[in-house]
Structure formats: C-alpha cells, structure tokens
Specification:
By secondary structure, the protein is an alpha+beta fold. It is built from 13 helices and 33 strands. It is found in: Cytoplasm.
C-alpha cells in the first residue's frame, strides 16, 4: 500500500488539507493549459479556455492582463483557490516568460511544492532548468508532468534519463505512457495498478479509468492492440527494475520526483496528477523569519506579502497584495499589525481568487493565499501579524539587466507618470531609479519584453503614452557599508548615484570598470546585485 499524506497530527484538519503549489515550465510547454484543466476538474470553471483556440475560448482564466490575452503567454503570477476531493488547493500560476523570472522566484517563496511541466518532444529546456534550480535552493518538493504525449514525443526512458542527468534528481514513474503521438492511447497508472484510457473525442471529458489486476489481466487485450501491449509490459518491467519506487519522504526531501505522462489539452493525466498532489504533497510547512521559525499550527495569525498587483480591475484603479498565510486561522475583519509601519490594519475585504474573479474571504487558514485590497500601504516583503514583530526572510529583489530612461510623450502628464512608475515598481514589475542629477526616471528590467509590457500597461491603465530611450548606464548595484562611509561615497560620486523607489541608494554603472574602481578605491563599500525585500 502506498504511503499517502500522513500530516502532522498536531495540525488542525483545515490546515492539514491545504496544498499550496506553483506550476513552473519553459514557455509553450503547456503550463497555462494545465492550469485551466486544474480549475476545470476542481469545479472552479465550466469551460477551459485553450491557449491556441480562437476568440473568447482563447482567453485563459489565469491570463488576465490585456497583453497576456493578446500574446497567449503569462507574464504575471495569479493565485487561484479551489476544492478537489478532500483537499483545498491554492495554485499559483507563474510567469512562463523568462523575462519575468524574478516574479516567479518570489512566487516560489509562497508555496510548499512545485509542478514542473515539460514538453514530451523537447524534454528539459533552459528555463525549466533555471526554475528547477530555484526550487532546489528553496528545498521544494517537485512533481513532474510530461505533457503533449498525444504528439510525437521522445522515448520515455530518454526523457527520464535527461531529467535525472540534467537536474540531478531521482525520477520514479507514477504512470507509464501507452504509445505516443497518434498511437497514444493513455497510460498505465503505476501507483494504483490501473489503466487510464484517453477519449480523443472530447477534450474536456475526464479519462476513462479501468481497474486491472496487473498487466497480465486478460481484459487489457480488449483495450490495447497486441503490439502496444507487449511493448508496455516490457517497458514497465524494465522501469520497475531500473528506476526507484515511489517514496514519499524522498519526494518531500526533494531528492525524488514522481513523473506523470499525459496531454493537458486532451484533459489526460491531469486528474491523476491532482490526486498525486493531494495524496502525497506537503501540507503547509514551517516558514523562516529573521526572529524565529513559524509553524502553521500556531494560534496567532501571521503572513507575508509576496506579490502586489496594481489595477487588476482598471475601472477601480485598485492594488491588491497577495499574502501567504503562514500560521493561524484568519477571519475577515481581524486587525493585524503591519510590521513595517507598526500600525494596525483592519482587514475588512480580504479576497480569494479564481484568476481575476474574486470572492470575499470570510476566513482563511495557514497555507492559503488571500488578496488584500489597499492603496499602496502594502509592499512585497511586508509582514502581517497579530502584534509580534516578525520579518520574513528569503524574498529577493534582483538588479536589473537592462536600463532605459522613460518619458511621457505629453509633458503635462509627467507627474501622473511618476505615480504609475512608482506603482509598478512597488508591485515588482520593474525597478525605478531617480538619479540625483537631472529630473528624469530610469527604469530597470530583466528582459526586453518587460519594457513592452510596461508601456502597454501605462497606456491602458493610466492613459499615458510613453517612450523608453537608451541611457548611459548599463547596470545598477545597491550600496551597503558603514553609514558614514556610504554618505561620503554618495557625495563623492553624485553622477553615478540614484535612489530606488524605497529611497535606498544605488550605484549606476556604465562599464565593469566602474564596479572594479569602487571595489579598489572604496573597500568598505559593498555593491550588491540583490536586495532582500524584508521590511
């Protein structure tokens, strides 16, 4: 009998049934389609909006921003909550585009596990590898879904070998594909010893499950051609000899990933994956703070902001802080202390999300992700507690790789532009720098697509057409060191100094030579490419 999730006996049942996870993948591996089908099986939506379909059907539920809808890629992270069987799932959809990897990194601070989606024809791609390394740094357990098996795919053993070699993790097959491409019939569920057969006629129909007593059961021949059946028996026997069996502790430790094979667009393998998350995935875990570790079964509520999304509803010019609850039982109307300002906040309109649909959250538990509408008081990294001063750690901000100056095409709108740029910087969509000399603004991003998204959002949400133009600077570094030394350095290097949107000093560089000069001439000044967003 397989080891199902045996949660800590100390956890209240409502916390023990929470599963909070993210989906990571290379662009185009099928992450958004898989998210759709999760919502479909969770009863949260009636029709899946396929990414490559036409018109309204193409509008995927987790891609709500206008540019995402136009391009069919996810560039911001959405949180979605729904019930599945006895479990309550909190799914965080991460940006699939590499230019938005910082948003993904922050998202991974708020989850307890990740699903890695790979394309059966392409295997482990570059973005998948980068995101996997982030998961490993965070010790996140990983479930793998090999997608697009209904197309021509690589050999199953080749895919598993590549994951083991490139990602240095053991792989155990939770299912084994029966054929591939046009011959793909379904999969053999190796955890429960049953056949799952795909229905190609109806993409939104759940797979037909046929219970069998092992692969020698005579009734299998009614469903699978003889040649495919012989191949399936051989491969499953080899897999059982050569690959490790599923072990929940090894999975939770991050040394073993179970892999399911399926086709998200055909709804195949999705339900089995979801069952795997529920039965074997981790319940809400202990979270690190500077002061101490926070256990989910503590009675007092605490949580942290991992994302801020401005203008989720452009008509209301709102801002919503996404908060991961780390401990306790939250109830609407509670007063929580905003740790950075030390002021109490009455949380009167917290929301649960289904993509951009919201529902008032009367209560929530450790592990849940709630949205708190606000007018700018909450920033990424902020802690909310019932009075205790807790500073949650591990939420990074990265130095941008591209810098451009920005101006409104209408000079009369310069003041409004400052407000828009500040808002986007606070939600983590970009970095904003105000040079000490001059009156302009410099925007920093990780990838070129972010400039396009920013220009699009500033025009759509604020009605301000803008132009991004090259600047003399190529990178930015945060300053640290003894305060007197930092002050003297800032005074002596005004042409290179700017402030970020938090008011922290930043050294703007043109060449690597600038950084080398500072390290040589100012040994007590430290230039860093990351800043902890712990406030």
């Amino acid at each position: 009998m397989l080891d199902r999730a045996h949660n800590s006996p100390d956890l209240p049942p409502e916390i023990a049934r929470r599963r909070t996870f993210a989906i990571i993948s290379h662009p185009d591996a099928g992450k958004t389609t898989l998210t759709e089908k999760f919502l479909l099986y969770g009863g949260a939506i009636q029709m899946a909006g396929q990414v490559r379909a036409k018109g309204e059907a193409r509008r995927s539920r987790s891609d709500f921003m206008q540019m995402e809808k136009d391009r069919g890629i996810s560039v911001s992270a959405s949180a979605m909550s729904f019930e599945f069987g006895n479990y309550w799932f909190n799914l965080v959809d991460t940006p699939g585009h590499s230019d938005f990897s910082e948003d993904t990194y922050r998202t991974l601070t708020a989850v307890d596990a990740a699903i890695m989606v790979i394309d059966g024809a392409k295997g482990v791609e570059s973005q998948t590898q980068k995101l996997f390394e982030v998961c490993r740094l965070r010790d996140l357990p990983i479930l793998t879904f090999c997608n697009k098996m209904d197309r021509e795919s690589r050999d199953t053993f080749d895919i598993i070998d590549e994951i083991q070699e490139n990602l240095a993790i053991d792989v155990t097959p939770a299912s084994w594909p029966i054929g591939m491409g046009r011959e793909f019939l379904g999969a053999y569920d190796m955890l429960h010893n049953r056949l799952e057969l795909m229905d190609r006629a109806d993409r939104n129909k759940k797979a037909e499950s046929i219970k069998i007593d092992g692969l020698d059961d005579p009734k299998i021949a009614d469903h699978i051609p003889a040649d495919l059946l012989e191949k399936l028996r051989e491969e499953v026997e080899m897999a059982r000899e050569l690959l490790p069996a599923f072990n929940r502790q090894a999975f939770l430790d991050g040394t073993l990933t179970p892999i399911w094979f399926g086709s998200a667009i055909n709804s195949f393998g999705v339900q089995e994956l979801m069952t795997g998350i529920g039965d074997y995935g981790p319940e809400p875990q202990v979270r690190p703070a500077q002061e101490r570790q926070i256990s989910p079964d503590e009675t007092k509520v605490s949580g942290f902001v991992f994302k801020v999304q401005a203008n989720m509803d452009p008509k209301h010019r709102d801002r919503v802080a996404f908060v991961r609850l780390c401990a306790g039982h939250f109830k609407r109307g509670m007063k929580l202390t905003h740790v950075r300002s030390k002021k109490p906040m009455a949380i009167s309109n917290p929301v649960l999300f289904l993509a951009n649909d919201r529902e008032l959250a009367e209560d929530a538990w450790a592990g849940d992700i709630i949205g708190i509408p606000n007018h700018g008081q909450l920033r990424i990294g902020d802690g909310l507690t019932e009075g205790e001063e807790l500073h949650f750690s591990g939420i990074p901000s990265f130095a941008p790789e591209l810098l451009q100056s920005v101006r409104a095409t209408d000079p009369m709108k310069a003041k409004h532009l400052e407000k828009a740029l500040t808002q986007f910087a606070e939600e983590g969509a970009s970095k904003l720098f105000k040079p000490t000399i001059g009156s302009g603004w410099i925007v920093g991003v990780v990838g070129q697509l972010q400039f396009e998204v920013l220009a699009s959002r500033i025009e759509l949400e604020y009605g301000i057409p803008v132009r991004f133009e090259p600047t003399q600077f190529t990178s930015a570094r945060w300053l640290s060191g003894p305060q007197a030394k930092v002050d003297a350095f800032v005074k002596a290097n005004k042409g290179h100094i700017a402030e970020d949107h938090d008011g922290d000093p930043v050294y703007m560089t043109r060449l690597q030579w600038d950084i080398d000069r500072v390290e040589r001439d100012y040994p007590e000044i430290k230039l860093t490419a990351t800043k902890e967003m712990m406030v």
